[in-house]
Write a structure and sequence with these properties.
Domain A20-type: 10-44
Radius of gyration: 34 Å
CATH topology of the domain at 106-156: Zf-an1 domain
Largest sheet: 2 strands, antiparallel
Strand order of the largest sheet: 1-2
Oligomer: single chain
Pfam families: zf-A20, zf-AN1
CATH architecture of the domain at 106-156: Irregular
Shape: elongated
Distance between the termini: 98 Å
Structural class: mainly alpha
Keywords: Metal-binding, Zinc, Zinc-finger
Region (Disordered): 52-83
Domain AN1-type: 102-148
CATH superfamily of the domain at 106-156: AN1-like Zinc finger
Length: 167
């Protein structure tokens, strides 16, 4: 039965070959599970790098100006924005970009308490803590009645029947 499941009895506990403090096994080359996973990932990365280098060397035509065969191709150049001599215009552009990207709100708009990820976003567009999340607590400027009327009007369209002819 043990042969069917490829089960091996433990002969004794062996420490990991990397001396990380955990126990290793013969199935994982005397490495613990974390070190073995790292070892396998490193081997996979080396194999993928080797294949990409071989593919790039076979795809590119041989050139006599290359100093050695294992040269790595240059990375693509980054496109840099044009720089004008007008510093005021550059500052204005930066300010406009900052205004277009709203800052990450991490404080309650009423009490300025740090809220982190637990903030509540109101329909008026601001974020509040658990105490000020209700519209009546923070003086919400959102018109809930107007939105309710619009939803009811959209859900119940006005239907006018044709007038009956009097006899």
């Amino acid at each position: 039965m043990a042969e069917e499941h490829r089960f091996q009895a433990q002969e004794g506990h062996r420490l990991c070959a990397n001396n990380c403090g955990f126990f290793g096994s013969t199935a994982t080359m005397n490495l613990c599970s974390k070190c073995y996973r790292d070892h396998c990932l490193k081997e996979q990365q080396q194999a993928s790098i080797k294949t990409t280098v071989e593919n790039s060397l076979s795809a590119s035509p041989p050139s006599s100006s290359a100093p050695f065969l294992g040269s790595v191709p240059d990375p693509p150049a980054l496109a840099l924005p044009e720089v004008n001599g007008d510093k005021d215009a550059d500052v204005a552009v930066v300010l406009e970009q900052q205004q277009q990207q709203p800052p990450q709100p991490n404080r309650c708009s009423v009490c300025r308490k740090r809220i982190g990820l637990t903030g509540f976003k109101c329909r008026c567009g601001t974020i509040f803590c658990g105490t000020h999340r209700y519209p009546e607590k923070h003086g919400c400027s959102f018109d809930f009645k107007k939105v309710g009327r619009e939803e009811i009007a959209r859900a119940n369209p006005l239907i006018k029947a044709e007038k009956l002819e009097k006899i």
